[in-house]
# Entry
Amino acid sequence: MGAARFFGVVGSFVVAAALATFTPATARAEAPRPHQLKYDVALDATVIGASMAFVLGTELVRSVKPLTCRWCDRSGDVDHLNGLDRWGRTLKWRDPLRSQFDSGVTAFLLEPAFAMVDMIVVSAADDADRAFPVDLLVISEAVAVSTFLNQAAKLVFARERPFVHVLPPDERKRTVAPSDNNVSFYSGHSAMTFSLASAAGTVATLRGYRLMPLVWGTLVPLAIATGYLRIGGDKHYLTDVLTGAILGTAVGVALPLLFHPRQSDDRVPIGSGTLQPAATPLHAQTPMVSLGGGF
# Structure
């Protein structure tokens, strides 16, 4: 599938989801103000900072990455690649580099941009723009934790990438980035986009935003597209992408539900400005303390 056609299909799904959300019935619906969510700026920011410090540190220190595979899908010259991943490689594009580039566009440009716009729109539609900074904090925390878990898994499993797997033995260490050869499991692009989509969707659901379907309807198709493009670029096996999608979604849903639930029946104040917790001061939000032991 060509890039123009592929993005046309993805774009049609995104536009259809947006149009389906903005119906006259939705616009006229009367709904109470969105719910407040529990949060702790200091603790949440610490989790984000520590997670990203680990990821960036292991990216900069290339010696941390495994130079030989532990999960090689072969024994000597015998190929042991499973049937599902063997079939998945039939989805590889004729121009893998183009697919790799496009996956970067969907993962690091389109998905974050749509997420930002979506959350601004859905909060503003309910006169709750004060909620946006906290929404962004919670979503960023979920993405950071998901990225941390993905990076740790890549270093532990050390699975050989598909395009490296098919190279002759003497060429496997002559790739453009040999330190990147054995970090196939599991897909970081998929984990990141699915955690972002599910975290944004879960936050919108917890808030009770009327336009919540817009968030799910625009971000999930982009996450699916990213996973497909990683397979098309021969950077990941199908099982790498499926695992990234499942675990990214799990983190994106679980973290807001478990650590940022609704604050009883309190509602977000109407108007602009910086949201402050209404029910309890930051130092009294004891439910969040458990997060420190979970990561």
About this structure: Confidence is low (pLDDT under 50) at residues 23-29, 272-295. Residues 32-63+81-274 form one domain. Strands lie at 35-37, 74-75, 78-79, 262-267. The two ends are 41 Å apart (CA to CA).
